[in-house]
Write a structure and sequence with these properties.
- The chain is α+β, with helices and mostly antiparallel strands.
- It contains eleven helices and ten strands.
- A four-stranded mixed beta sheet has the order 1-4-5-8. Strands 2-3-7-6 form a four-stranded antiparallel beta sheet, covered by helices on one side. A two-stranded antiparallel sheet has the order 9-10.
- A hairpin with a 2-residue loop joins strand 9 and strand 10.
């Protein structure tokens, strides 16, 4: 089964597999221990254009379908979920511009990526996680500019991005989320800074920081879609992003199954390889079933996106199921390794640590179930 992709994507898939084998798989082990950001690894990835895979052809990108890109992202996630998260999060930072930006904004942002830049999306705040409408960051009109003040947290690529799409309130008196807008803020804008890198349990090859805005002056030309449109743009952005997190989760689950098969073929108990026992084979079968189901859910949601038809329910289902699958598969892989699975010299404890965040970010899986229920039941 797996993804059905173009010949161009198949060539890229082989190149990415080779790149990850040479530059990511073994190196990730040491970076996971030290927490150091692997700058050289990402420079090499940018030279391959991996940070620009989602850019449309008319803006200098490869012009691949979303399912093509999914196969490539999953291959990166098999190598390391933190690496794949960094690459995917750059696309996340670009989505608000591609969704609501004008031609100038799209061309500017895509040019940054094509020339080796990274992007980031700034929505979450210390008091506004699952409830983004509770955000306190503000943008005050001042002549032909807006002045932004506030703090974002848990921002993937927060310390390395070349541009940010930042949500802020342009009308604090508007009810609910109607006063939220989104701004394109470029790196080195005075007053824009980031906090220290978070010391995370998993995906430690990705950069996560606060993003701080202190009297950040942004020209009105950097407003995306108009005042008050920010919440709708942010929700459309997250709808798309959820499917991509399903893709990365699936790659992580695939890696866990690969490691479990390899280990139990070699590990012997009672005079034969552990994988000869039906109990182990059933565990592998359950992994394979859920991984393939995740993959097809991802592909379906992404195909709907490419066709321009509603996909919110399908993206939520894909993200929720795939990330739950990643957690289940990595936990089972640790179990299949026995005591060795709990030791850092073996690969699966890292995979288990990496998996947990996928049930939390881009909307917790509790939120995904709410989205799925609302889109299934309807209003009554």
């Amino acid at each position: 089964m797996a993804y059905l992709i173009s010949d161009e994507a198949k060539d890229l898939l082989r190149d990415i597999h080779e790149f990850c084998e040479q530059n990511v798989v073994e190196q990730a082990k040491e970076y996971d221990k030290t927490g150091e950001f692997p700058a050289e690894m990402y420079e090499a990835a940018k030279e391959m254009g991996l940070n620009a895979l989602e850019i449309p052809e008319e803006y200098g990108g490869p012009g691949l379908s979303r399912v093509d890109v999914a196969a490539l992202f999953e291959e990166m996630a098999v190598a390391d979920a933190g690496f794949a998260t960094t690459i995917s999060a750059s696309g996340l930072g670009t989505k608000p511009v591609l969704i609501a930006g004008n031609e100038d904004q799209k061309a500017r942002v895509c040019d940054i990526l094509v020339n080796g830049g990274f992007g980031a999306f700034g929505l979450t705040e210390p008091g506004a996680g699952s409830d983004p409408g509770a955000g306190k960051t503000v943008a005050v009109k001042d002549g032909d500019d807006y002045i932004l003040n506030g703090q974002k947290c848990f921002i993937t690529n927060g310390g390395i991005a070349d541009f940010y799409c930042i949500t802020a309130l342009t009308d604090k008196e508007a009810p609910g989320t109607h006063g939220m807008s989104i701004f394109l803020v470029e790196k080195d804008t005075p007053g824009l800074s980031h906090g220290v890198e978070e010391d995370k349990m998993g995906i430690r090859l990705s950069n996560t920081t606060d993003v701080i805005l202190e009297d950040v002056r942004v020209p009105k030309e950097n407003l995306l879609g108009g005042e008050g449109k920010g919440f709708a743009i942010a929700m459309k952005t997250l709808d798309q992003a959820r499917a991509w997190m399903g893709v990365v989760s699936t790659g992580l689950a695939q890696r866990a199954m690969n490691e479990a098969i390899a280990y139990t073929k070699e590990r012997k108990q009672f005079g034969r390889p552990v994988l000869k026992f039906q109990a182990m084979q059933f565990k592998i079968a359950d992994m394979a079933i859920k991984i393939e189901a995740s993959r097809q859910m991802n592909a379906y949601a992404l195909t709907l996106m490419d066709q321009g038809v509603p996909f919110s329910r399908e993206a939520a289902i894909a993200k929720c199921f795939a990330s739950d699958t990643a957690m289940e598969c990595t936990t089972e892989a640790v179990q299949m390794f026995g005591g060795y699975g709990y030791i850092r010299d073996y690969p699966v404890e890292k995979l288990m640590r990496d998996a947990k965040i996928f049930q939390i970010f881009e909307g917790t899986n509790e939120i995904q179930r709410i989205v799925t229920a609302n889109n299934t039941i309807g209003r009554f």
